[in-house]
């Protein structure tokens, strides 16, 4: 009996550890270590964090080679098969640029426990119109990271209506105008706000500083549209972590995009 309990404890620890490894390792390495690791790799708890690799051809080719007995796989089938492994327990989902509309809709249906979501630029450009309606299916959503969203105001409105535990927003390489700022301020529990590398006017920034009273982190480094000064620092005095640096009032449009570092988004989850 003690031996059995020890085995079960060891398996629980292994599930906890393997649930932290990258997806490609969980697919292509872990199952082939030994039988017990293969068994653990099938546990839905190992698939609560679905962080898809961003290199479509490489990943798909390797997936086909390893799982060739299954038959031909489309991108949609590949993403759906991974989402299915979580057995509706997934709490974090980082989708790749090559994600299809069908796979996005499937993920919305099969990830009701989702807390963290990241949507890349290419996916947002193709499927921006359906994102707001999908938000209602992620009622447990707490954190969202978007790259160049074209309908941020509408997305935030749906979050305000359906996601009562939402507290973290990251928007990168985008333009944040007054109506979108109003939508941000309307989020009642916003604590972490990352707008690094965006265009935002000074008056809009003041709206955020005055309206978001629960902010614990605000990252507005490398922004265009304002310059940091003592007044902004004073308005931000209630924020534990206020990241202000390298922001400029204006710059040539092409220079802005050439100098922007697409990897500068703040990983707060």
Question: Would you write up a description of this structure?
Answer:
- There is one protein chain.
- This protein has 13 helices and ten strands.
- With 269 residues, it is of the alpha/beta class.
- Among the domains are: 97 residues, no CATH class; 90 residues, no CATH class.
- The chain is 43% helix and 12% strand.
- The protein starts with a helix and ends in a 10-residue tail after the last helix.
- The strands form two sheets. Strands 1-2-3-4-5-7-9-10 form an eight-stranded parallel β-sheet.
Secondary structure category: alpha/beta
User: How widely separated are the two ends?
Assistant: 40 Å
> Largest beta sheet, briefly?
8 strands, parallel
The total of helices stands at: 13
Radius of gyration: 21 Å
The strand line-up of the biggest sheet is: 1-2-3-4-5-7-9-10
Helix proportion of residues, in percent? Answer: 40-55%
> What percent strand?
5-15%
Uncertain runs: 1-9, 252-269
**Mean pLDDT metric:** 83
The count of DSSP E runs of length 2 or more, i.e. the number of strands, is: 10
Protein name: F-box/LRR-repeat protein
InterPro entries: F-box-like_dom_sf (IPR036047), LRR_dom_sf (IPR032675)
